[in-house]
Design goal:
The chain is mainly alpha-helical. It is about 80% helix and about 0% strand.
């Protein structure tokens, strides 16, 4: 028994070292999965369950009234401007410019990623609204009346999808922190503007942000994640077989 333990101990140590090296090599992938997929998915799931059961949240209405208490003519104009900047048309224009630039630089994998991330988020938002059919708040006369469903917020989901996608694309460059900080502030202000204007519950905004993070991060993992070692080995063996056959 003692000999068996001695012979298996080095194998266990090698396995542990290999596992640690693999985790370290894939630390950014694991961080993306945890912070960009698992955590926001759990938050979205909790909100969606309550909305589906039509139970609602006590803090939704309370927070709406609290923010509305700060309303002024100046803030009205400012929030209308912010919400207009986060509307679908400006986001579509921004996306089109990014896709055109990527196509010009022949970064076709990035074109595919941006199309799936931003376009998929828009389609997912429409499907979610039809599924949950949550009506918008009607607590005071609104400056920008909305008639469609509110969960999750299209403005919040669309702006964060664009911001997150551009941040991923710019991450290898020196513009990474500018995109992250400025984009996060912009997405946050758009979400706040929708609450200030009374066209969304705060839970709609949070759900939109979470859904965008889940989708953009998930697409990022699928498009950019490195192939597992066994898939790379299979491809190498296939190339060797083709080379031998042609020879």
């Amino acid at each position: 028994m003692g000999v068996a333990r001695e012979t298996t101990a080095p194998g266990r140590e090698r396995l542990l070292r290999r596992t640690v090296r693999m985790l370290v090599a894939r630390r950014w992938l694991l961080l993306t999965l945890f912070a960009g997929v698992f955590v926001p998915l759990a938050i979205f799931g909790g909100l969606a369950e309550e909305v589906w059961e039509q139970e609602g949240f006590a803090w939704d209405t309370a927070l709406l009234w609290a923010i509305h208490g700060y309303a002024t003519p100046f803030l009205d104009r400012f929030m209308l401007l912010v919400t207009d900047l986060g509307a679908p048309l400006p986001m579509i224009a921004c996306t089109a410019l990014a896709l055109a630039f990527l196509a010009y630089r022949r970064r076709y994998a990035d074109v595919l990623y941006a199309t799936l991330a931003i376009g998929g988020a828009a389609a997912l938002n429409l499907l979610a609204k039809l599924l949950f059919q949550r009506h918008r708040p009607m607590l005071w006369p609104q400056l920008t009346p909305e008639t469609d469903f509110g969960f999750p917020s299209g403005h919040a989901m669309g702006t964060l999808a664009v911001v997150a996608t551009l941040t991923v694309l710019l991450w290898p460059t020196r513009w990474r922190w500018f995109a992250l900080v400025v984009g996060a502030i912009f997405a946050f202000l758009v979400g706040v503007s929708r609450i200030y204007l009374g066209v969304h519950y705060p839970s709609d905004i949070i759900a939109g942000w979470c859904a965008a993070l889940v989708w953009v991060s998930g697409v990022r993992v699928i498009v950019f994640a490195p192939l597992p070692w066994w898939q790379a080995r299979v491809r190498r063996l296939l190339r060797l077989r083709d080379a031998a056959g042609s020879g």
